[in-house]
Amino acid sequence: MKKLLVPFILLSMSLFIAACNSEGSTEEKDTEKNTEATEEEAKSDETEMKSALLDYQMEIINTVNANDSAIYAFEAAKAKEEDKPSDEEIEKLKTDAEAAAKTVAEDVHALEVPAALDSKKEEIQGALDDLAKSYETRAANLSDEANAEYTESDEQFAAFEEKMAAVYEEAGLTKPSFTADIVD
């Protein structure tokens, strides 16, 4: 009987070890599947964020460009050497430019950050606040001088661009140049 007991114990142990090994293999497969699913989800979220950022960039540009032409018309008119507009025309252009800058600031404040960008909402909102302040400052400081500098407004615009660049770079995108797309 003792002779049969030893092989029976060995057989039982080998079945037990095989069962444990098989269970570990199943757990590894489940872990691999979960890891793959998580990686795919992360890639999908990353792609969605990149797409949303690019779409939002166009929305910002279109919002600003919809009303900023009067600002650049005023700047161009006062810089003319020949066929310079009269003082009354310059004053009207200035009034139009001031109204346009205020409208741009209001429109920028009205922009809503898309849900796909919720994880970056604070950074984006901070950047938009700088953009709106840039136009508010421009409206308040329009000058009749031909080569007037708008240092404060330009600094606020640069702060907007820097904040947006950080968001883009964190998302794995090249930082955009809003100056090239917004400034006429």
TrEMBL record:
Residues 22-48 are annotated as: Disordered. Keywords: Signal. Residues 26-48 have a biased composition (Basic and acidic residues). It comes from the Bacteria. The keyword Signal applies. Residues 1-18 form the signal peptide. This is Lipoprotein. It comes from Rossellomorea aquimaris.
